[in-house]
Structure formats: structure tokens, C-alpha cells
From TrEMBL:
The protein, known as: 3-hydroxyacyl-CoA dehydrogenase/enoyl-CoA hydratase family protein
Native species: Pseudogemmatithrix spongiicola
Gene Ontology molecular functions: (3S)-3-hydroxyacyl-CoA dehydrogenase (NAD+) activity; NAD+ binding
BP-aspect Gene Ontology terms: fatty acid metabolic process; lipid catabolic process
Signal peptide: none
Catalytic activity field: a (3S)-3-hydroxyacyl-CoA + NAD(+) = a 3-oxoacyl-CoA + NADH + H(+)
InterPro entries tied to this protein: 3-OHacyl-CoA_DH_NAD-bd, 3HC_DH_C, 6-PGluconate_DH-like_C_sf, ClpP/crotonase-like_dom_sf, Enoyl-CoA_hydra/iso, NAD(P)-bd_dom_sf
Database matches in Pfam families: 3HCDH, 3HCDH_N, ECH_1
Superkingdom in the source lineage: Bacteria
Protein keywords: Fatty acid metabolism, Lipid degradation, Lipid metabolism, NAD, Oxidoreductase
This protein's pathway: Lipid metabolism; fatty acid beta-oxidation
């Protein structure tokens, strides 16, 4: 049941976001909404859908992975254009959260598109109610698809099958959502709130009540419920502003009614809604932005104050610890902060243990739902293991609650490694079951625990992926590239050749960062010592490491994702293939620290863009250099892998994009095995440089930036060095090799290191984590 065309009904934030995601994945999409006018002759009846598309076009962060994908969406209205859905393979309903309009729409779709899979994006209406009056065939092709906002960035998708959903339908929609749209799938039971929102809303309600009880401030609660306990930085109230306070009131009221639980928000939230203070969409809610300052609400007076970030010495000390240690330390926090946090954690853990069998089909699904949907580093049951189950059972009893059955039979931990498998308590019986695998995933963490690490140091590891493929994994802070990475890269390639491996993958399982680039701490120490010989050797060695991936006798595939900056971009550019995750923020950003891309990046773009124009006799080779110069001098960074392709970091055909981060390593491994049977390593390239004339043209562009106040004198110096490398030197045109440009890179890199301006930029970045313009 291949899905080739998508229909979305409802062009609000969710519907338009789902349409943008499907279009970004390459599918044609029909986006409909209610008519904007009752008059059937009115020329702009489709205004609601058109405006919905306009909103996601302008959304920040961007809803589209490539702006051009918006052209794949056709808009219309449900009165005049419902027939456009007739040939859609999948139709997603995302209209008003009331049963009657949804039921009326499904009645029309039943006859209009009998072969389509139809899903509802309802956040809480039971599927059984939505299906009232529908035929057996419609029921078999129907289920819930509960996305989280914004759909592009939130990994979680809850699938809610009914007892009548056909297995093939569920299998088809799951495969499509996982592989084509990149979602992390959790199968939820058809209960109010499903999994993530049921637990998340409960947590927000309890946090608000305990804040009032312990007389804490809103910033204090956000500090205590954010990174301190491994949850999203937006924590509790910042998340509320993002969601909308009116939405919170609506959702909590609905869940209270359908579940019979008391999920009412604290009274001051209702007062804010009455006053129209709804969060980010009205520019004030729990927080308010005042020029450059962020003001926090005093919930007692409903006035805003600039109180800054809340912290204490104890909190600052805990935040420096690894996550598992952080959780154990947070549970023992002193004072009323600790009293609040312990009471909150006990309440949330008790709730999760009690409701788990009602919400999901397996325990791991609940952890995945909170990790993928709410940004928790560890789901509730993994966090309970970190807190310690004996402590938790005792704390629950101290608060006058009974220990839930699931917690009682968990023993020492919910997650237990048994004979190489991870087992968790069953939600239905008194036994343990294996954690369901994510389809197609190669989990590096699992391989590490299974003893598949072949060699490692503080900065990198080499892991056996099976089928004669190894993985070079970065593992230092922000996965920066230092001597340890270079040592392991050299060893890995030598190991691969000597042991007849099919090839090498370069990748890791960090949630956000492939690599932030070169580790500047080492060069800075050498700089302070005045050890220029060692600096030159270190620079040359990094260039050699990057080029070793290009000339290796076995295929090397990079699997970049997230932040892929500086040296990480250079490594990727020199691999045989790039298998990138769709969320790729790639760029050569060295000018921000006063340097040029010195690991082959400048050279590679010069060759790549110049050679791309070579087949066209009338093409001006300078256009290729100008394109490279713009990327480097402006430190341009992609906002997606699709944009990285249009920028030239990814090649149009050779390099591919994986939508689902969970299967990125597996896809990269498959590329290696595809290349291996007839692999021949590339040879050193040559080209005719443009020389002095190109340098002069690029220098003129730099001067224009300075005249416009957009560049400093040092920016001009850096830009001139880039221009000289791209042009193959500041002399007459000549034939140059890749090595010639690498030598120019290295000389320029070292010259800039010797300037006080670059040294100041490096020191500022290492100290603050931010760039310095000087």
C-alpha cells in the first residue's frame, strides 16, 4: 500500500505543518480548509488554506526543509475542492476538535476516496466516536495519527489503531511515517490524551499546584523541571507559552471531563486567559519579552518582573554532573526547592506507573513518547532507574501512597540487561519482555554495551557494525575533533585495510551534534607557548586525516546530522558518500574564530564548484569561485540537508538524505556495502586556477562589505586569504593540484593564527561559546 499523494484537511498550525513535512519529503500534497466565504461565486473562497500555507512558509523555525517544497502543495476548500482528494493515498484530518464536523467529513471521504488510508490528528477524541456510522471497509482503513507541534521538528508520532484497523494498513502507514516522513512511532491505546499528552499535561498541572504550595517563582520551577532533571530547556512554563495558555485550558478541561481526573490548572492561569495573555502568540503569558529582556510573571500579582534566571550554588553544582548522577543529586536537593522537586517526582512517577498499562502496549513506548514528544533526555521509567527504585518506593510510601504493581515487581530496575538483550516488565503479565526494536535501527549504544567496541580513546571509538563494516564514532565534548580523533581515524583505516573490511562509516548517536568542529583548546595552548612548529604539524596532520578519507582504499561514508560545523563539514565533504539526516546544520564557519577552513574545505569547494562548470563551454569559472567564497566568507550554514544540497555541501545524486535519525547509521552502512564490491579509490585532481584576476574581484566584493559597515578590517584580511586559496594563488593562472591548494590553506591558517585579532576571537569563543566580531 504505497503512499504517493497526501491530502490534509485543516490548514491550522498542525495541518499546515503536516502538509509542509510531507511536501519536504517530496510528495504532492492537497491542503484544504473550510471556505472563506459563503458566496460560492466569491473569487477567494480558499483563503483559509492559502493563509495557512503562507504562515508555514514564513514560520520560524522553518516548517519546510527546502523553501521550494511549498510548490508541491495545492490549496483549496472543502466545499469546492474535496474531489482533489480522490486520488490521495493517505488523507489526514486535522480540523476542529469536535466529533460532529469530523464525522460529517468522514462520511464524504468514504465514498470519495474508498481506497485511501484515512487518519485523524485528534488529540483526544476516541476513535470509536469518530467512526460512528462508517462502513467496515472505512473502519479497516482508519486510525489515529497524533502529531506533535511543530511536525517537522518533533520526532514523536502516536499511532492509535482501532480493533478494526487492518494489519496491512497499520504496517503501511507506520512504514511511511517512519521512513518517508522520519517519525518516531509509538503505538498508543485509544484512551483520552493517548500517552505523551496524558503524562505531560498531568506533570504541568501538578507542577503548577506544587509551585503555589511551596511558594516558588515561575523561573524557579522552570529551573527545577528543565535540564536539572534531564528535560527540555523550556521546562514547564516556557513550554506552556509555546503551546498557548488557551490550548492548555482547553486540553486540561477536556481530559478532566473524559478521564474523571482532577486536571484543573491553578486559578491564575484561567485569569491570564481571560485577559488575553496566551503565551508566545500574544507576546505575553508566563513570560513577557520587553525589548531585550525576558520578564517573568509574578503569579501572585500577575505583574511581570525582570528577575533573571533562577539558580543556587547547589543547582549549579548538580548541573555540572552527568545525567544519571544529576538525577540522583537532584532528588536530594535541600530546602524548599528540594521539597518541591521530590514531591513532584514522586507524583509523576506514581502516575506513570499506575497508568502505564492503560496508555500503551509496552513500557518502552512510554519512555519513547516523553523523549520524542516532550524532549526528555530519559523517559520516566529510565529516570526512575536513575533515581533508584528502592528510594522511589520508600518516597511514595512516605507520601502516603501505595506502591503501584508495576513498580513493585520491577525489582532493582525497570531496564535489565539479560544475555545481551534489554528486558522490561510486561504491562500485562508478571514477566519481563524484550524492548521492541526500532525497525531498521543500528543502535551504537547497544553495540557498545554488547562489547562491539574494537578500539577507543577519550575522543573517538571504532565499533564493529557487522558485515565487515566499522564505524568511527566521535565521543568528546560536542564531539570536537582533536588528536584523539586523528589517532583513531588513522588506526581505523589501517585496521579496515588489513582486515579486509568492506568499508567505514563515520557517525555517532549524539542527539544533536555530529561535531562542532576542531577542538581549539589544543592549538590555543601551542599558540600561547609560541610552538609554531607543532602548530604547523598539527594543521598538516588534520589535513592529512581529512584527505585520508578521500583516498582510502576502502569506501568511507559520512553520516552527519545536526550541528556539522567546520572540520566536521570538511570530513564529510571528503568522504565517498554522505548519508545525511534531514535535520543537518552544516557549514564552514571558521571565519567566526578568525580563521579559514584549513582542513581541505576551501580547497574542496574550489574544485567542486569549478569542475561542476567545466562541461559548459560558455560558463564563467569565476562563478564557481564566487559561490565558494560566499559560503566561506559569510559562514553560511544550512538549515536542513535539503538546503545543504542546494548550497553544494551535498552532491545532487551521489549524496542521500535519511528522514529518520534512528536509521541513519543503518542507511550509511548500506551505502558502504553498496559501494564495496567494485570500489576504486579516487586520484588526485587537477584544475586550472584563475589567479590574480579572481583575487582582485573577490577583494573588491570584500571592500564593498566594509564600506557598507558589514565587515571589519580583520574580516577583510580573512576574506583575502580565502580568495587567494580559491584562486590558486595571487599570481598568473596555472595548473594546480589539490595538494597545492592544501598548502595555501595551511599557510593562510597559520598566518591568521599569528594575528592578535584571531587570537582574541578564539579566546572569546572558548570562554563564552559565542563568536566575537573585531
Amino acid at each position: 500500500m504505497r503512499i504517493t499523494k497526501v491530502g490534509v484537511i485543516g490548514a491550522g498550525a498542525m495541518g499546515a505543518g503536516i502538509a509542509a513535512l510531507a511536501a519536504s519529503a517530496g510528495l504532492p500534497v492537497v491542503l484544504l480548509d473550510i471556505p472563506g466565504h459563503d458566496d460560492p461565486t466569491h473569487p477567494d473562497r480558499s483563503k483559509p488554506a492559502r493563509e495557512g500555507l503562507d504562515r508555514v512558509r514564513k514560520a520560524k523555525p522553518a516548517a519546510f526543509m527546502d523553501a521550494s517544497a511549498a510548490s508541491r502543495i495545492t490549496t483549496g476548500n472543502t466545499a469546492d475542492h474535496l474531489a482533489l482528494l480522490a486520488d490521495c493515498s493517505w488523507i489526514c484530518e486535522a480540523i476542529i476538535e469536535k466529533p460532529a464536523p469530523k464525522q460529517e467529513l468522514f462520511a464524504k471521504l468514504e465514498s470519495l476516496a474508498p481506497d485511501a488510508i484515512v487518519t485523524s490528528n485528534t488529540s483526544g477524541i476516541p476513535m470509536a466516536i469518530l467512526l460512528e456510522g462508517r462502513s467496515k471497509r472505512f473502519r479497516e482503513r482508519f486510525l489515529g495519527t497524533h502529531y506533535f507541534n511543530p511536525p517537522r521538528y518533533m520526532h514523536l508520532l502516536e499511532l492509535i489503531p482501532t480493533p478494526e484497523t487492518h494489519d496491512e494498513v497499520l504496517s503501511s502507514i507506520r512504514h511511511f511515517q517512519e521512513r518517508i516522513l522520519g517519525k518516531g512511532i509509538v503505538l498508543a491505546k485509544d484512551v483520552p490524551g493517548f500517552v505523551a499528552n496524558r503524562l505531560g499535561v498531568h506533570g504541568m498541572v501538578v507542577a503548577g499546584r506544587l509551585m503555589v504550595k511551596h511558594e516558588l517563582s515561575i523561573p524557579a520551577v522552570d529551573t527545577l523541571t528543565g535540564a536539572l532533571i534531564g528535560r527540555a530547556k523550556t521546562a514547564t512554563f516556557r513550554t506552556g507559552d509555546l503551546s498557548g495558555l488557551d490550548v492548555l485550558v482547553h486540553v486540561t478541561a477536556g481530559l478532566s471531563q473524559t478521564t474523571g481526573e482532577d486536571l484543573a490548572l491553578v486559578p491564575f492561569v484561567h485569569e491570564l486567559v481571560k485577559q488575553g495573555r496566551l503565551g508566545d502568540k500574544t507576546r505575553q503569558g508566563f513570560y513577557k519579552k520587553d525589548k531585550q529582556d525576558i520578564l517573568a510573571l509574578d503569579w501572585k500579582t500577575l505583574e511581570y518582573q525582570n528577575v533573571g534566571r533562577y539558580t543556587t550554588d547547589a543547582i549549579d553544582a548538580i548541573l555540572k554532573k552527568p545525567l544519571t548522577e544529576r538525577l540522583r543529586a537532584a532528588r536530594d536537593l535541600p530546602g524548599k526547592d528540594g521539597d518541591f522537586l521530590r514531591e513532584l517526582l514522586v507524583e509523576q512517577c506514581h502516575y506513570a506507573c499506575t497508568l502505564a498499562p492503560e496508555l500503551a502496549f509496552d513500557l518502552a513506548a512510554i519512555d519513547r513518547a516523553m523523549e520524542w514528544g516532550y524532549g526528555w533526555e530519559l523517559g520516566p521509567f529510565k529516570a526512575m532507574d536513575a533515581f533508584g527504585l528502592d528510594w522511589l518506593r520508600s518516597a511514595i510510601q512516605q507520601q502516603g501512597k501505595s506502591v503501584p504493581d508495576l513498580l513493585a515487581r520491577a525489582g532493582n530496575a525497570f531496564y535489565a540487561d539479560v544475555n545481551g538483550s534489554t528486558l522490561v516488565p510486561s504491562l500485562g503479565e508478571n514477566n519481563r519482555v524484550a524492548v521492541p526494536a526500532i525497525p531498521g535501527q543500528i543502535a551504537l549504544g547497544h553495540l557498545r554495551r554488547a562489547g562491539k567496541v574494537v578500539r577507543e580513546n577519550a575522543e573517538a571509538r571504532v565499533i564493529d557494525l557487522g558485515h565487515d563494516v566499522a564505524c568511527l564514532e566521535f565521543c568528546g565534548k560536542m564531539n570536537t575533533l582533536g588528536v584523539g580523533v586523528m589517532d583513531l581515524a588513522e588506526w581505523a583505516l589501517d585496521y579496515g585495510v588489513k582486515n579486509g573490511l568492506a568499508g567505514l562509516v563515520i557517525g555517532n548517536d549524539d542527539p544533536r551534534t555530529f561535531t562542532a568542529g576542531a577542538n581549539l583548546a589544543g592549538p590555543r595552548q601551542l599558540l600561547e607557548k609560541g610552538d609554531w612548529k607543532s602548530l604547523e604539524m598539527l594543521t598538516k596532520r588534520f589535513q592529512d586525516t581529512v584527505m585520508s578519507f578521500r583516498f582510502a582504499p576502502i569506501p568511507v561514508v559520512a553520516a552527519p546530522f545536526g550541528l556539522t560545523l567546520g572540520g566536521g563539514c570538511e570530513i564529510s565533504l571528503h568522504c565517498d558518500r554522505i548519508q545525511a539526516h534531514a535535520e543537518l546544520y552544516m557549514g564552514l564557519v571558521e571565519v567566526g574564530v578568525g580563521l579559514i577552513p584549513g582542513g581541505g574545505g576551501t580547497k574542496e569547494l574550489a574544485f567542486r564548484f569549478t569542475n561542476a562548470l567545466a562541461p559548459y563551454e560558455e560558463a564563467d569559472a569565476f562563478e564557481g569561485l564566487k559561490r565558494a567564497f560566499k559560503l566561506i566568507a559569510l559562514a553560511q550554514t544550512s538549515t536542513s540537508a535539503h538546503e545543504a544540497r542546494s548550497m553544494g555541501f551535498l552532491r545532487p545524486i551521489a549524496d542521500r538524505i535519511t528522514m529518520n535519525r534512528d536509521v541513519l547509521i543503518a542507511d550509511a552502512k548500506a551505502r558502504v556495502l553498496d559501494l564495496a564490491p567494485d570500489y576504486v579509490a579516487p586520484t588526485m585532481r587537477k584544475m586550472t586556477s584563475m589567479g590574480r584576476a579572481a583575487v582582485a574581484n573577490l577583494d573588491y566584493a570584500l571592500w564593498s562589505f566594509k564600506e557598507a559597515g558589514q565587515a571589519s578590517d580583520h574580516d577583510l584580511r580573512i576574506g583575502h586569504e580565502v580568495a587567494v586559496i580559491l584562486a590558486g594563488g595571487d599570481g598568473p593562472p596555472r595548473e594546480v593540484t589539490e595538494q597545492d591548494l592544501l598548502d595555501l590553506e595551511r599557510d593562510a591558517f597559520l598566518r591568521l593564527l599569528g594575528t592578535k585579532e584571531t587570537q582574541a576571537r578564539i579566546a572569546h569563543t572558548l570562554t563564552t561559546g559565542k563568536p566575537l566580531r573585531n
